[in-house]
Structures are given as structure tokens and as C-alpha cells.
Amino acid sequence: MSRPSAVYVHGFKVKIKFKEIVLSDEGHAVSGTFDRAGSEILVSTAFNETHQRSTLLHELIHAMQAYANMQIAYTENDVIEPPTYMLERVLFPVFSDRRNRAFFTFLLGAECE
Ligand SMILES: [Zn+2]
User: Fold this and answer.
1) For position 80, what pLDDT does the model report?
2) pTM flag (> 0.90)
3) Structural domains of the chain, count
């Protein structure tokens, strides 16, 4: 499966990189991170592919929150993590279901491949 190298959020390009070891600001090994300053998502490849995909969605939600000017909440992990996990858990089963291909193709617009 080819991996995306970027995603556009509110018109901003957010780079996506996959690497085995991803560390939090505190130095803990984590599934993924979103760095607002560097406009970059890191996803750890130390986990299986489904976990990598749900992690990518989780970090995308952080990016969407940040670019929607929710930075204050973003800096307070205790505040932002519960709604982020909630969104990840409700969105991922729908976003990752291949039977929804026509639905998302419609959202992308008629001219996309
Ligand atoms: Zn998070």
C-alpha cells in the first residue's frame, strides 16, 4: 500500500512521514505526533498497518483542530485528547471502509480519479 506524503488541511500542506521510532515532546515512544510549527505528522511503523492508519487519522484530527484555531486546547493534552480519540473512533471505521469509496469519491468531486 502506498503511503501518503502530505495532506491538505484548510489549504495548508501538512507533511506526513513514517518512521519506526516516534517520540513525544517528553521523549516517550508514541504511535504518532503532529507538529504544528513544522506542519508535520509522524507515524510510527512499529505498529501494524491498521494501527498506523488510525494513528494517521488521529494526528490529522489534531492538525484539523490546530488549523481551526483550537490551539489553546491543543496545548492542553488533557483537554484535547478525549475529543480527539472520540473523533478517531467514530471516523476511522467509516473512513477506512472500502465500501465507502463511492461516497468519498463524491466528496472529492466528480473529476478525481
Ligand atoms: Zn493525540
Assistant:
1) 73
2) no
3) 1
